[in-house]
Design brief:
The chain is α+β, with helices and mostly antiparallel strands. It contains 15 helices and 19 strands. The strands form four sheets. Strands 5, 6, 7, 8, 9, 12 and 15 form a seven-stranded mixed beta sheet that branches. Strands 3-4-2-1-14-13 form a six-stranded mixed beta sheet. The chain has a four-stranded antiparallel beta sheet with strand order 16-17-18-19, covered by helices on one side. α11 packs antiparallel against α15 and α13 packs across α14. About 25% of the residues have low confidence. The chain binds zinc ion.
Length: about 550
């Protein structure tokens, strides 16, 4: 089994991702800094023939951070999960096994997983003894430290400690574990073109890596300045020396073996770089099964080069990819337009958090993301970009929507209305074909009793349909639309097919049921045999009320 890790510095801008993936010749490819958020994901990136893929997205900024793992069909994982802490677990096909998270706060865990920095896939493998084992591959993009910002320094250290907690928990459970990715730490002085000899080993993230890794005769105890740092980079449960750096296992003293170079200074030509990208296998696995590890410096197309390791393991493909697989996303599974599916997916979440997430995606900072920095002393070498933004979670404004807001709101409504069409088998709406003219949907918090108001909204939505058809990707409209989704009715019922919160719709068609509201499955429509697509759930809000005449 061959595994590649590569910080691609933007996955959407590659001329041919498929060619890249094929030429890297690996069974499992772990990419970091995809700079793809959920709103941007498109089919050429999401679905590559012969592979199945799993993404983690930033919830804070659009076009920021992000990791993705692509698996050859022969190594289709059994489980897949976004994040390290379980706060993003979907409830279906998660990897699980989190370790003791009692040393982290709830909000801290959410924050550590909110930047799309980790995805875990769990595979079934057969080792050279013929034993069948689990293998968890943790693909991470560790935050880079902005030396000016103590909060980011702490964020990085806590992320590392959470990573260790999860990796060691999976290991203790009996799984093989491989941590791969851009760790954003040069481990030893030979891993850095310009190490600061005084402070180099005392940096707490480096201390963390020292302890995390096993190496012959090395003292793995922590040497930190104060107790606070000790608490940031360890818990009473974290161990030492459980993992091995695959590259150094074969080349312990090789100099100038860098994986990242500054593009602004063209330092790749002079090989003036750092080694930040690692394949860290658990000690048992590395000692028994690691066959090779190379840094593929000849591969261009990013400010990092890929690193590849080969293990004497054979993948045993799962029969069915786990539900996190991109091919099940509504817009790729069915024929839905991208924006539409996105809304439906988000609508399931039914919470204020969900609305924050979508609203936050509108503040684009992707233009700042094109510059990169070497992890240490960045202020001397290049501008600080990655962490200089303010990834703050803004509270959604719960203003009452009027006039100008109404048009935007109509976007969401028109979309719901569109989705209406082929969908609902039950009576009034099932007009089929362009039956979207027949009904209109409203959302939680927008319960409208007054028919005249409703009419206005319906008219507005009709106006917008034409414009949204041409530009379905206007994420901006989502924020306004979401404002209408908050508050209002109590919890919606769970759909029969997925046990997920339903959305509310309303009959617009003239007739006895006009303006009646009903619940349906929140998912996007898809092939009828596709379990990930919308189920048949239908129920009136006013079940007990008699039909109007
Ligand atoms: Zn459903």
């Amino acid at each position: 089994m061959k595994i590649v890790t590569w910080n691609v510095n933007g996955i959407r801008t590659r001329p041919s991702l498929k060619e890249d993936i094929e030429s890297l010749d690996a069974d499992i490819l772990c990419f970091q800094e995809t700079k793809v958020t959920r709103d941007m994901l498109e089919e050429p990136v999401a679905v590559i023939d012969g592979y199945n893929s799993y993404f983690s997205f930033s919830r804070k900024k659009t076009g920021y951070s992000g990791v993705a793992t692509y698996c050859r069909e022969s190594c289709t994982p059994v489980k897949a999960e976004e994040g390290l802490s379980g706060t993003l677990a979907s409830g279906k096909g998660d990897v699980g096994c989190y370790g003791n998270l009692g040393y982290f706060g709830k909000e801290e865990l959410e924050s550590l997983d909110a930047e799309g920095r980790a995805i875990i896939t769990q595979h079934t493998v057969r080792n050279s003894d013929g034993d069948v084992k689990d293998l968890a591959i943790i693909n991470v993009y560790v935050p880079r430290v902005d030396s000016e910002r103590d909060d980011r320094k702490e964020y990085k250290l806590r992320f590392l400690t959470l990573l260790q907690t999860r990796a060691e928990a999976l290991l203790t459970q009996g799984s093989y574990v491989i941590v791969v990715g851009d760790i954003n730490i040069s481990h030893r002085m030979i891993d850095h073109c310009n190490p600061d000899s005084e402070e180099f080993n005392l940096r707490p993230d480096r201390q963390w890596l020292n302890r995390f890794l096993w190496s012959e005769g090395q003292d793995s105890s922590l040497e930190v300045k104060d107790e606070q740092e000790l608490l940031q980079i360890s818990t009473p449960d974290t161990k030492s020396g459980q993992f091995i750096d695959s590259f150094r296992y074969f080349y312990p003293d090789e100099k100038d073996a860098f994986t990242c170079w500054c593009t602004l200074t063209s330092s790749r030509v002079t090989n003036y770089g750092t080694r930040l990208d690692y394949i860290l296998g658990d000690a048992g696995l590395v000692k028994s099964s690691l066959k090779a590890c190379v840094q593929m410096v000849e591969v261009q197309g990013s400010d990092h080069c890929p690193v590849k390791a080969e293990f004497s393991l054979a993948g045993v493909a799962a029969i069915k990819a786990p539900s996190l697989c991109t091919k099940y996303m509504p817009e790729f599974a069915g024929k839905q337009q991208k924006l539409s599916s996105f809304f439906v997916k988000a609508a399931k979440k039914e919470s204020v958090n969900a609305s924050e997430e979508v609203i936050e995606l509108t503040s684009s900072q992707s233009s700042q993301e094109s510059n990169k920095s070497v992890e240490s002393n960045p202020e001397k070498k290049r501008p600080l970009v990655e962490d200089s933004g303010k990834p703050v979670l803004k509270k959604p404004k719960l203003e009452s929507k009027k006039s100008s807001e109404e048009g935007k709101q109509a976007n969401l409504m028109s979309f719901f209305r569109k989705k209406q069409l082929a969908n609902t088998k039950p009576e009034p709406v099932k007009q089929k074909s362009n039956g979207d003219e027949k009904s209109s949907d409203i959302t939680n918090g927008e319960r409208i009793q007054d028919k005249t108001v409703d009419k206005k909204l319906v008219e507005a939505s009709e106006k917008v349909v034409k414009t949204t058809d041409t530009k379905p990707e206007t994420v901006k409209s989502s924020s306004a639309a979401w404002k209408g989704l908050l508050g209002g009715l109590g919890k919606p019922p769970l759909c029969k097919g997925h046990k997920e919160a339903c959305v509310i719709r309303m009959v617009k068609k003239d007739g006895p049921n006009k303006f009646r509201q009903f619940y349906v499955c929140a998912r996007a429509e898809g092939h009828s045999g596709n379990p990930e697509a919308r189920c048949e759930h239908f129920e009136w809000l006013d079940k007990n009320k008699k039909k109007k005449l």
